[in-house]
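Justification of computing resources. Each target in the renewal requires a structure prediction run like the one illustrated here; the chain below, 147 residues long, is used simply to show the kind of job we budget for.
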Amino acid sequence: MSVIDKTSTRDTLLEEAFGAPVRELYAQATGPDASAALVRALELRSFLVVAEEQVAQVRDRVHGATAADRDMNELSADDLRFDAQWLEAALSGRNGYVAALGELLRTMPEPGQRPARPLQFAQQKITAVAAPAPAPPRAGAVRTHRH
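Resulting structure tokens:
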């Protein structure tokens, strides 16, 4: 199943920010007039969907392993420690994507707002002349042969 068909915890924010349902936003993002902010936001959303699936998988595995009707002899501290590490990694990834998406939505230009003219960056030419490297010790010294 595609990430387009899955939900994320930030879909409502995206829909409010860009004024369309997520599925339509993905369609808009493939068009020639798609804003860089929309393309990047949907890329982050796609990563977020995968990260949230990972969090849910580990959470569900831990819940299953610790269910009240589960045999106590099946509990494994090693498995739970491993799951805790997986959960920490998955949450860290998810939190990073949530933060990046939030920052993008806070800093993106208003819809329809484009610069009056394309941005042009002046490229400065750096010219420098390096000083000659110092000669190594004993450079140019004549070797004498010892017999």
